[in-house]
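Study this fold:
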Amino acid sequence: MDKNFSLGEFQALVDEVLIRHKSILDILSKVQESSARVNRAVAKASTSCGCIKICAEKPEVPDDITFSKLKSHMSDHVEGELCTTCEEKIKQEISTNLFYLFALCNTFDFDTEKMTEDYYKQLKLLGKYGLL
């Protein structure tokens, strides 16, 4: 990848190549569809391939735990490692989802670099407390 690659360049390229699904309704439905494809690819990694196992359960969290220590009691519920095939499929589906999210930003003239920078500053300032 080009060392000087930026979100702005990706956003400009999305704007340049998106022709067929330029309508806001098309973009919204493509964002939703691509999100569903990400979900499906992860589910298939577990149910069809079996390279990962999803073991979701309610976390055991002590009543007296502080918020700053809560992270150590939380789990992503994924066991195992993605195989090469599933990893590539999930990456491809996430990339497609990003494409349509950037297309949505283009529709409203949102600067993704500025949005990312602003959100980065918010996360740095508020940390984990900003996500409550």
